[in-house]
Design goal:
This protein is about 80% helix and about 0% strand. α1 packs antiparallel against α2, α6 runs antiparallel to α7 and α10 runs parallel beside α12. By secondary structure, it is mostly helical. It has a domain of about 120 residues: Tetratricopeptide repeat domain (Serine Threonine Protein Phosphatase 5, Tetratricopeptide repeat, Alpha Horseshoe), CATH 1.25.40.10.
Amino acid sequence: MPAKSQGQTLLEKADKKANSSTGWFSSASTKYEEAGDLYQQAANAFKIDKQFKEAGDAHAREAECREKSNEGNEAANAWWNAAKAYKRVDPGLATQALSQTITFLCKAGRFRQAADREKEIGQIYLQELNDLRKACESFERAAEWYSQEDATATANACYKDAADLHAELEQYPQAIALYEQVANGSLSSALTKYSVKEYWLRSSLCALAMEDVVTAKRNLTKYGSLDTTFPSTREAKFANVLADAVEGGDVDSFTGAVFEFDQVTKLDNWKTSILLKVKRTLEVADGGVL
């Protein structure tokens, strides 16, 4: 029979402590504090052996002990440590542990940290679990918390990520609303004003993907009145040429504009994907086939 690992030995010790009856001279709170410390030690021993699932489980049990001894901050921390361990082996369990962390952080009014953890959940859904809808929800929730904590730049970055995902899910009106919200928030600062043309271009591409040239053109006019330098930017000129091409059903003009823009400003994957959708719609309208 193989010798027990250090982690396993500590885990058994922790279980014994957590399940022991309280003696004359010790309180239940002390018992759970001591058990929590042992679970934490067990988790660290499992990490040394690269047993990340076991480490996560030990941290989760530590968190429950911290909660029983009314140590809310320590419970939040233990769940976060559990999430970091789970992240190495099971993204689904990592999101559950992060949700537990967030519950404790919100109770303590630590919304900035709650937003950080919610953003982490969004990234796991996006990169590991490929669940765009849930990623989108997490980014929006994180953005709301960042906003109420006055972390405007971080909030805007999360809203922008959510807008990109809404567009990928073909939820174009929601995407447009978020791009406009971020753009409006960025107009007031000299530091962020430069990025506004990018948000407005994305919003315009969403309107064209909805096959709504009227909204696209109306929005471009509105953006020009909000920032008088916008109509002279490459982004505004590009969006206007595309809108005219879509309105006139002119596939060649559309393709030419995309090629020219890409020569100077490389198109990212998001723009390439949405421009292809618009082009396909144009080709179908032009009597071509998908």
